[in-house]
Design goal:
Helix content is about 30%, strand content about 20%. It contains 10 helices and 14 strands. The structure holds nicotinamide-adenine-dinucleotide (NAD).
Amino acid sequence: MVGALSDEMEAGSSCDGATSKDSVGWGIVGYGWVARDYMAPGIRSAGHRLVAVADPGAASRAAAQAEGARAHADIAGLIAEPEVEAVYVATPNHLHRAAVEALAASGKAILCEKPMAASLGDAEAMAAAVSRSGAFYGTAFDQRHHPAHRAMRDGIREGRLGTVTAVRIVYACWLDRAWASFQGQDNWRIDPKQAGGGALIDLAPHGLDLCDFLLDESIEDIASLTQARAQDYAVDDGALLIGRTASGVLANLHVAYNCPDVLPRRRLEVVGTKGMLTAIDTMGQTPGGRLTFTDGTSGESETIAFDAEASPFLEQVRAFGSALRRPEERAAYSAERDLHTMRLLARAYGEALAPAA
Ligand SMILES: NC(=O)c1ccc[n+]([C@@H]2O[C@H](COP(=O)([O-])OP(=O)(O)OC[C@H]3O[C@@H](n4cnc5c(N)ncnc54)[C@H](O)[C@@H]3O)[C@@H](O)[C@H]2O)c1
């Protein structure tokens, strides 16, 4: 989720007491907004270590050094660090492929930001590189790890909703031409070559992946309409997507860069024959939000409790680190599944995603 700087969490500095065996040595490629404000605090809070970063930007390297990490201008320097076991890739989208290919060849574990790539061709090449090398790869779908979303999945699996019929998502923000994650930082999100698209490719991956996570099945059929309505740049500033899973659950997603941040703009509903789960302000990088269950017979709503302190990034670091140590947990990650999400995005754009770099 971009924009909405008010969503940012405090940089966590506490440690959960991870044992030295569980404490993973991390590298980060691309030490910009999401890496600095969310991933690095998540690494610290989990009791893991940020060992080194790779970033051509002098300001980004200085920010990493101020956090006690070593800083390289090039990924080769980071790969040469034996203490780095897992690497989080958070460059602009069109640079994910080169980083993932180099890391896969090095054998380090890879957690790559969404969307997997700026083009379907790049994502296919990444999945092939991961498969060839046998490297442990995951796409950083942090929202799988939001405690409210985990509670929703538990409720659905327990049958609280009866037969699930629909997922309805609103995930929107304001991103204008002048938007920058940091002063002087390039707004690559409005450049089709670097981003691969606009609000659709940036924001819809989270919702598509959440459908898979919550329903235990992927969306198979998809259609969409995009708009370039309120902003003055070359990529879409809004999109509506409709999808259907193999078993027949319908999904709709409204994603946008043209929604003022103060408006209600983060809503996730799962509807079934026996009730409905509604999560408000849970989609995003921050902890908290609200979750309710509405009973399909009485119409009454109750609040569902979840850990409102743990950020999805903290939980993502814990889960990935645990799977690094315990290979039996790696089934929760799949480059092929994430490639399917990229194929859905490509179809939503009418196959108009940029060709492979
Ligand atoms: N999961 C989420 O909630 C979430 C939120 C924001 C961004 N993201 C994703 O994270 C990625 C980064 O987004 P951002 O907002 O942090 O961008 P950003 O522009 O703030 O930071 C990008 C960083 O990459 C660096 N960079 C550029 N070229 C590089 C290269 N060749 N090698 C290494 N580093 C390089 C830049 O110097 C900059 O420091 C994107 O893929 C974006 O979609 C995900």
